[in-house]
Amino acid sequence: MPDRTMYAIALLLVSMPFLSHAAYEISGTLNMKGDWQHQIYLATIDRLDDYYDANADFIINVATVAENGDFIIRGDNLPQKSQFYRLYLIKEEHSEFNACLYVGGEEHNFIHLLLNNDSQLRITADDNTYAPFGDYVIEGDQENSLMKSLGLLVYPSYQFYEIKFPSELRFSQDKLNRDLFDFADTCSSSLVSLAAINNTDYVNYYDAHKIEYQQVGARLRQDWPDHQYTIDYNRKMRYYDSDESETAVVFQYLSGVLSGLLLLSLWYISHLKKQLSTQPSPEKESRIIDLLTPQEIKILDLITEGHSNKEIANQLFIEVSTVKSHINKLYTKLGVTNRKEAIVAGQNRQLTRY
Asked: What does the domain layout of the chain look like in residue ranges?
């Protein structure tokens, strides 16, 4: 009996370091057949709107990838509450950026994961494929298996630019969104369900699928009432549901007030622009850009980067006609008349940000 007691105490002492300090670990083997850096990056996604944003400021861990593709990335700096993260590689030619994302085919260089500080995952790419994460197998938990299934559903949608006819594009977008709604409805994880619904086109599908959007919100409020994603999602729902106020009278009154303020703002912008030089200072330009909506700011940034309307539509999962509508509105707000002048405004905005 004493021997057994001593053995149990010894085992407990050996186990205590592991029990007292949680740490995550992601290991595996990737395809390194292209011109990829031999480093792997883990980036946090703290807000829903950052799901596809690539920014070096989001990187929280980096590890070396061996010549054969083996890697281990570990740490203890994640919150216990699960959230989305991005695991990715970048090209050698873009090593100074540390935030590039490539989507589709042989260039696909990232996956999304659901992690917390206890996560233990292993990822193995199929060496018969070429992309770094090509047809990967993931071991560790069911939620990340669901994230892989979602990825297989979403990523082919980035190939819309290869579709030749507008009707074919529309049918493909309709099918993708139907599949995403079905996936969200049947998914056992509320966070993975959120990831699916977050990939839908809110602008074009919210009115027709309001019940589905509301159901996801209800699940989040039940499962993750204090999560930042729940707060972000509820705010987004209020935005897209803003045309349904408690009473039509109040709504019409507020609409009239807002319309008046908008007209006054547009007049002020026009008056201000007359006083500005043709090359306004970044400080003055930033005050005007503050009037843009988050979607208009995204489109302005993409215009400044040289993207066409079609490329912008593909990146934001919206119609080209919707892109044109947003561009017309931001032209009016900025007081510009063409894309060249809008690019100058966008460059001035970037100057004020850094």
From this structure: 22-140, 159-240, 276-353
